[in-house]
Amino acid sequence: MLKEEDLTYFKNGEIENIKFWKRLGSRPDFKDKKILDFGCGHGSLAINIANSGAKKVVGIDLSENLINFANENLSKNFSKLEKIVSFEKIDLLETDKYYDFDYIVSKDTFEHSLNLDKILNKFNSILKINGEVYIGFGPLYNFYNGDHGRLEAILPWFHLIIPERILIKRINKKYKKYYNDVRDLGLSKYSFKDYEQFFKDSKFKISFFKTNFSDHPISKIFNFFSKFKFLKEYFTYNIYCILKKN
Hints:
By secondary structure, this protein is α/β, with parallel strands linked by helices. Helices cover 36% and strands 19% of the residues. The longest helix is centred in the first third of the chain and has 20 residues, at 4-23.
């Protein structure tokens, strides 16, 4: 049975999809194309792409719960797309079943993804020549809420100020868990500079790279401070990027 909170998240995703494409300049022509949605979550972006005339859309994620929702939602509410869209719980680095994609998309996933250099190499290997990757994600770990609230540091940037071991110890005690570090909470902990280097070192051509897209009024303050080199790392909150396979 589909849970109301999951349906709400899915519907919010439909709104976020509009922002995603706007921030990347525009949505590609997906008609008759094969697309991989990396970190598909509840599946809203995959459904969005399928409705634009795609030939095949494959959504993958590491969360079994999210994939179960995506498949059930597809069956119950988007049955006309069942021959076009598929969702699967799978680690892309652990499979060779995917190939010949025209596009790869990834929304709000790279801040959670470890081994990003290997992931980008995998993207390159499964894309067709001239294939493209559309990426958008944030908040970055060094931003004021970069822990996504998972460390419960409460105040801005306190997840960077308070030693991580202390925050993890408190979380373990509170929830009776056994996390070793922030990566166990689903965060990659990569810095803005790390992401820049990953993209630069990849086999892709970077055809679009911009940061700090937001409609929130307070974002103007962050955008201003991000212009200063010594503050850029801590005031850059998201990245939107298009990579092309030559």
